[in-house]
Amino acid sequence: MIDLHFNQQLAQGYHGKTQIARVMTEDWVTRNMYCPICGHPMLCHYEANKPVADFYCPSCGNDFELKSLQKQRGPLGNTINDGQYDKLIERITSAQNPNFLFMHYADCMVRNLILIPNHYFVPSIVIKRKPLSPDARRAGWTGCMINIADIPQSGKIFIVQNGEVIDKDVVQHQYQRTLFLKQGNLSSRGWTLDVMACIERIPDTDFTLDQVYAFTKELEAKHPENNFVQAKIRQQLQYLRDLGFVDFTSRGHYHKTK
Prior knowledge:
Layout: H1 17-32, E1 44-45, E2 55-56, E3 63-70, E4 79-84, H2 85-92, E5 99-106, E6 109-116, E7 126-128, E8 143-147, E9 157-161, E10 164-165, H3 168-176, H4 186-201, E11 206-208, H5 209-213, H6 216-222, H7 229-242, E12 246-250, E13 253-256
Parallel strand pairs: 3-5
Antiparallel strand pairs: 1-2, 2-3, 4-8, 5-6, 6-9, 7-8, 9-10, 11-13, 12-13
Helix pairs in contact: 4-7
């Protein structure tokens, strides 16, 4: 059974808030987390300072990176701070790119824990920060942020939601429904994710092709190499229809599936 509380005794001997948070959150994952992909009952901790990944599943071999945020209200913001920009880009574009666990906690207790599968990560959701100034201790070092606002809701799988633990079978089922995104290259995956995110921003369950076309300029800015954006939108709608994420109801009309 998942215990949502941190082991506060681990804070003894540490003075920095960042160190205390890291020790307690990583200990919580080690004691409580199963693999949300294959269901193995535990995740193992990598040695310290491994780029990007913190944990791995000893059964299926998937990597997981933990990012935690302390706040009293709301699960997460739109962006999450990360480490070095180049290292993250290198890792998420590799064959061993990690899955991410985003944790929101308050009062030494997990409030929300979200799995974002690795196939939802494309370079366009990583925001590059300005390099550190020449007089800084790590002059030229360039950090980054992850823009989770651009990730479709289907890629934000709750393991804990508002203090309630989600059934393990539900978590694994939701993960399985996302596996179609593993097909194709980064470019095609980026298009699919972007069109999915646009559809989610349409408030109605039933929507039209023209409503998706309303995002044309936004998609042109994200994909300046493509001169036929509306044709690409139609292609992606057909792809999402074939996968059961939307239904075609009549010419130019669609329905969002659950």
